[in-house]
Amino acid sequence: MAKRELDFLDEMIAEDTAADPAFPALLAAAEARRRLLRELVAKREAKGRPHRDSGPGSGLP
After folding, report:
1. Residues in contact with 44: Cβ distance below 8 Å, sequence separation at least 6, in sequence order
2. With contact defined as beta carbons under 8 Å apart, do 40 and 50 qualify?
3. Which of 37, 25, 56 lies closest to 13 in space, CA to CA?
4. C-alpha span between 11 and 46 (Å, rounded)
5. Measuring CA to CA, how many Å separate 42 from each of 1, 17, 37, 46, 54?
6. Kind plus residue range of the DSSP H or E element containing 52
7. CB-based contacts of 20: which residues, under 8 Å, 6+ apart?
8. What is the four-CA torsion angle of 36, 24, 2, 35, rounded to 10 degrees?
9. Average pLDDT, stretch 5-28?
10. How far apart are CA 5 and CA 1, in angstroms?
11. Alpha carbon distance, N-terminus to C-terminus of the chain
12. CA-to-CA distance for 15 and 30, rounded, in angstroms?
């Protein structure tokens, strides 16, 4: 498999990791949060619930 050329995002991640060794863990946590939110949105949409019914004060857990 041919090695691909680094793009801007790869370079940014490498620079941020060099500046803060904890950056990869922070990035992974952010990706996990985004996955979770996408899953929750999909479940809400599958139930036909509007976005306004899923916020604080909606009475939903």
Report:
1. 51, 54
2. no
3. 25
4. 38
5. 35, 32, 9, 6, 12
6. none
7. 26
8. 0
9. 95
10. 13
11. 47
12. 18
Copy the structure tokens of residue 44: 């809400």
pLDDT digits (tens, 9 = 90+) for 21-60: 999 999 999 999 999 999 998 998 898 888 877 766 555 5
* CA 27 to mean position of chain CA atoms: 8
Helix (H) or strand (E) holding 31: helix 23-46
pTM above 0.70, yes or no: no
CA distances from 50 to 20, 47, 56 (A): 40, 9, 13
- Angstrom distance (rounded) from CA 20 to CA 11: 14
